[in-house]
């Protein structure tokens, strides 16, 4: 019996020592302390074959063994618990003393978006709604509905990207393509702006780009006059270039307005004295505008006898170039990070 006990003791010790974690310890617990089939239980059951006079002493031996083993077991258990806790804490630990890693640079808005947002804020503050529309456009909305007949030079292949194998479709050459679309979807009175990307088949240079941005707008109601138009456009110019900005309107032909004007602001770079940017005229062209042609109102299902309106279109790229002193329009689409990070 004593032999068996010391054998169990040794085996138990080595298994206990070998347990690397609480899971492995559980296995050891099963082997020795399971009530049903553990080694201690086995020993206890073996007592029934022991002669009566020895039973008490042997029983005592087994109990002492059991107490000793349990004590060792609990010590090991608390050691492993501490170890596992330390490991989890270690894994979740954040080293606050670690030097700063190079931060990810977050992106920022493109200069055209900055100015577009500024104008959207201004127009919505005056009660305008904002409409978005397709860049791939039918010839109808881009030209025909805008009183531009089929033979008009603006439709020439030189100016426009036509879509191969899809006759009648073009990349819109201006945001005016949204005029009739918006009229058809709404009822007067209307105050709308329609900013967006446009395309022209340009031979590109410092002032011309095949992809550019415009901000279109119109107001339609009863009793709308050229004076209303001037008032609004002056306000926009002052918002962009300061309260002393002067605006000049000069007649210009656009098939979809009558009368049509070309809007200029006094050159704020040279105070109208004449410089390279204003081509020594003292004025900078920033928009086209005019009273909406009755044919266009009718195409938009609006009674041209009852309603009038004015429309305008700003070249956003030009506004941005003037605001930030950008000398070449091609920077905007160029994607050069050295240019973009300046804004
Ligand atoms: N769509 C014209 C252009 O691209 C600008 C314009 C808009 C003119 C609205 C008059 C009225 O040049």
Could you tell me the mean pLDDT?
Answer: 92
Query: What is the makeup of the main sheet?
Result: 7 strands, mixed
Secondary-structure element pattern, one letter each: HHHHHEEHEHEEHEEEHEHHH
Distance between the termini: 90 Å
Low-confidence runs: none
Number of helices: 12
Ions and ligands: phenylalanine
- Supply the CATH superfamily name of the largest domain: Bira Bifunctional Protein, Domain 2
Structural class assignment:
alpha+beta
Radius of gyration (Å) = 43 Å
Total separate domains? 2
User: What would you say the CATH architecture of the largest domain is?
Assistant: 2-Layer Sandwich
How are the strands ordered across the major sheet?
A: 1-4-5-9-8-7-6
Helicity level, as a percent range? 40-55%
Number of E strands: 9
Identify the overall geometry.
Answer: rod-shaped
* Percent range for β-strand residues: 15-25%
